[in-house]
Design goal:
The chain is α+β, with helices and mostly antiparallel strands. It is built from 15 helices and nine strands. The strands form three sheets. A four-stranded antiparallel sheet has the order 1-2-4-3, covered by helices on one side. Helix 4 packs antiparallel against helix 10, helix 10 runs antiparallel to helix 11 and helix 12 packs antiparallel against helix 14. The protein is globular, with a radius of gyration of 20 Å.
């Protein structure tokens, strides 16, 4: 349908149903030899579809309750056939509407904990770890991640960057040549490209998660709803064998956007629930990862992951305000004054996270305090 394709930057998407029986349907995702939103002149190998198909099959095996069923891969057409999620909506749309459930956040934490812990180097069988690292190197799309999250947003002459009027002084500071923020982002890029730890989703924002639609006044879903598939993580085309903290940072960012957006509107309860959800996500994830230990010193990995996740979270916040790809949380705000207030808060939070990630502790509450403050940090 045209609605799905408008939301897709790289690929085409189709609902294929039996004539007269719309509930008998599958979802087909097809990769052209270019970036769909830019056209045929923007070449990009369709080989990315094979990798995504293989990652989805691994996710089905490791976290079946949280992923759509993989049904078929057509190598000739670079097309993936999977379960059609009838009645599901994007998590981002639910967060914008104020339906912020801690159960959804815990489910995302569970998805990451299951997929990260079971593919972690030295924990997964050695042969499997080597195979994961080789199969899911994904340099093609990792190059895009490097450019659009860590590098281009800090380049003052980059033509793809765009931002609201009124942000110019802050953006000038962010993009200062040789500045601390630029250096911090470059260091994160080196970590992203050079720290193979486990199979990561690689694009785990709120637009890569779907949940069953509920009425506007629905209560928090019961725990059993998640066992039955309430939440599904999809679109793992940017997956790679990389740093766990990258997924964690992007996942938490979804709730930080929700917090600052609702706070800018004066929606105090929704803003508070977004922070509570982010805390639940991190607590669930840490609980599933605490038995994994760092090489050599025997310490658990969660301390390092949380500290590094703060930096990746900061980079995601910043690039969604001043880079090429923005988020509907902010773009859907009609009132220019409210939008600018929210964007300034997000930029402040992102800057704080980038500057403090190397020296901040790994306490979950400390991390959330850093990214829910809107005080601007000089750097």
């Amino acid at each position: 349908g045209p609605g799905w394709n408008r939301r897709r930057n790289l690929n085409f998407a189709f609902k294929v149903a039996v004539v007269g029986e719309p509930l008998k349907a599958v979802f087909v995702k097809q990769a052209p030899e270019y970036i769909k939103c830019l056209g045929p002149e923007a070449a990009l190998s369709s080989a990315r579809a094979k990798l995504e198909s293989e990652v989805l099959a691994v996710h089905n095996a490791l976290a079946p309750a949280f992923t759509p069923k993989h049904l078929h891969f057509d190598s000739e057409r670079a097309a993936i056939v999977m379960e059609f999620l009838e009645g599901y909506v994007l998590l981002r749309d639910e967060l914008i509407a104020g339906r912020v459930f801690t159960g959804d956040a815990r489910a995302i934490g569970s998805f990451m904990g299951l997929t990260h812990s079971r593919t972690w180097r030295g924990v997964a069988p050695q042969e499997a770890s080597v195979q994961y690292a080789a199969r899911f190197k994904n340099d093609l799309l990792c190059d895009i991640t490097s450019q659009y999250i860590f590098l281009k947003p800090y380049d003052a002459v980059e033509g793809s960057n765009r931002f609201s009027e009124g942000l110019e002084p802050l953006v000038k500071q962010l993009q200062a040549e040789g500045g601390a923020l630029q250096a911090a982002a470059a260091a994160l890029n080196r970590r992203f490209r050079g720290q193979p730890e486990c199979l990561i989703h690689g694009d785990l924002h709120a637009g890569s998660v779907m949940v069953l639609a509920v009425p506007a006044d629905a209560p928090e879903p019961a725990a059993d709803a998640y066992k039955e598939g309430r939440l599904k993580v999809f679109d793992p085309e940017f997956a790679c064998y990389g740093p766990a903290a990258f997924d964690v940072g992007l996942a938490v960012a979804a709730y930080v956007f929700a917090h600052h957006t609702h706070a800018a509107h004066g929606h105090a309860d929704e803003a508070r629930r977004a922070v509570d959800a982010a805390r639940a996500l991190l607590e669930t994830y840490v609980g599933l990862m605490q038995d994994i230990h760092l090489d050599g010193d025997g310490g658990d990995v969660t301390t390092a992951i949380l500290q590094q996740a703060l930096g990746f979270l900061g980079a995601e916040l910043v690039r969604r305000v001043i880079g090429a790809a923005h988020v509907a949380d902010l773009e859907s705000i009609d009132d220019p004054a409210i939008k600018l207030r929210a964007e300034k808060a997000v930029l402040a939070a992102g800057s704080r996270a980038l500057l403090q990630s190397e020296k901040a502790g790994s306490c979950i509450d400390d991390i959330l305090t850093i990214v829910t403050s809107n005080k601007w940090v000089e750097g």
